[in-house]
Design brief:
Elements: E1 2-3, E2 13-15, E3 17-25, E4 33-35, E5 38-45, E6 53-60, E7 63-65, E8 73-80, E9 83-85, E10 93-100, E11 103-105, E12 113-120, E13 123-125, E14 133-138, E15 143-148, E16 153-155, E17 157-158, E18 163-168, E19 176-177, H1 180-193
Parallel strand pairs: 1-3, 2-4, 3-5, 4-6, 5-6, 5-7, 6-8, 7-9, 8-10, 9-11, 10-12, 11-13, 12-14, 13-15, 14-16, 15-18, 17-19
Length: 200
């Protein structure tokens, strides 16, 4: 792989390219195709990557700030120790994607399809999964603070071991698996949502 520090280009084709120790600001790579690439210690500030495709790509210690990732496709991608802040990732398709020890702050996953996706030991604040389709998604060891699951479709979603801070969409958890401790913490919220009055 070669090192690339220059700005990305719209509709560009990148195969076997290594992006390392670089800051990429206001880049427009909409519709780009990234295959077997590696991003190490790269900071994206305000990139426009709408409709880009990522296949067999690795991100390590990367930062994506105010990124437009709407309508992108991700297959066999791993994010390790990455930071996402103010990211628009609605209407995306994620398949066999791993987020490991990542921080996600104000990420918009609305209308996104996530299949065989892992969030492991991640901190997720104000993450919006609204109207998304989650199939075989796991959240082990992760913290979800102010997560929105409104109108989400869950199938084989495993929330066990996660710290759940769900603020909306409790009724959409049908098809998800939780543990006993999570059930106890969610019970008052579920009762309130269903209009059940608990009185002793």
């Amino acid at each position: 792989m070669m090192n690339v520090h220059s700005a990305l280009e719209p509709e560009g084709d990148y195969e076997g390219v290594r992006f390392a120790d670089a800051e990429i600001a206001d880049a427009d790579a909409g519709g780009g195709r990234f295959i077997d690439c590696v991003f190490t210690s790269v900071t994206f500030d305000g990139p426009r990557l709408r409709r880009a495709r990522f296949t067999d790509v690795q991100f390590a210690e990367a930062r994506l700030i105010s990124a437009d990732l709407a309508e992108t496709g991700w297959t066999d991608v791993t994010f390790t120790g990455c930071v996402f802040a103010g990211v628009q990732a609605f209407a995306c398709a994620l398949r066999r994607v791993k987020f490991i020890r990542c921080k996600l702050d104000s990420v918009n996953f609305r209308d996104t399809t996530l299949t065989d996706v892992l969030f492991e030991d991640c901190v997720m604040r104000d993450t919006d999964f609204g109207s998304g389709k989650l199939t075989r998604v796991r959240f082990g060891g992760s913290t979800l603070a102010s997560a929105d699951f409104t109108k989400v479709t869950c199938k084989d979603v495993d929330l066990r071991g996660a710290d759940l801070g769900i603020t909306a969409g409790y009724e959409s958890l049908r098809g998800a698996t939780i543990d006993t401790i999570q059930l106890v913490s969610l019970a008052p919220l579920l009762a309130r949502h269903l209009g059940i009055v608990v009185a002793d």
